[in-house]
Amino acid sequence: ISTGAAEFLGCNGAVVDDGVGNIAIGIEYRVVAFNDDTEADGSNIVSASTTFALPGIVDGISAEVDGYESLTLSWNAASDGSSPVSGYTVYYSSNPEDLKCSTTEFGGCEIGTDSVDTTDTSVSIDGLDGDTVYYFVVVPHMESPAFGDVLGLASNAFDFYVPTPLEAPVDVAVDGVGLHEATVSWTATKSGYGAVNYTVELSEDGGDTWTEVGTTEDNSLDLTDLVSGATYIVRVSARDDYSVSDPSEEAEFTTQLEAVPYLEAAPSGEDSVDLQWDAPNGPSIVGGYRIQT
Asked: What is the pTM of this model?
């Protein structure tokens, strides 16, 4: 006959929680003798208590915005309980009332709201609403040899504001157009997070390609070194610490064409005159010349 085996029958309901994660549990056992062909009835059932500790409470929670619908939450590692910490569950909601704990059979915390699991001490959370305060609670896990996955106690709630997505600048206009200069202006964009900078782009080919010509925190920018007589399209985008808006509506303008700087005439016969002139001094787009009398 082989050696008898101790059989774990489960928890007998005697669970005692001291409030700080140290749990005493009454466990029932019996011994069953067996061989290759048969198995005897079990012995009498005995009870014994075992004590184990839940993982420590998470602290040091912080958050960084990844974009306007996502963030990365980080925290200090929880101390091990009777078994090493095996992972974490992050519960989150825009309503702090959703983060109330339901106590598990071993004294841990389980919450019935949105959550994400990780084995690291940070996690990215996507699909959040902008212009909203979210609340987060982190609960550690440990893998108990006897009871499997055991949830620990919840951290204090951590709140964080998820900013409003940047909107594109509006009312883009161009004035002060000269031979080689112009001023573009727009209505400022409100940011939910950080200072706003604006990037101005120009296109000389009808919007097929764009060239960045300047950045500013103001709501206007002077454009210089333009080609005389050229048609440009301008657009503006906004940027803050975490995001870039879509480009604004486009505005088109044409610089003034530089005049012929010098003209001379010389008789070339009884009924003709030779005219000679200099081309415009600066960079210009000249399609032709018209002779007026």
From this structure: 0.56
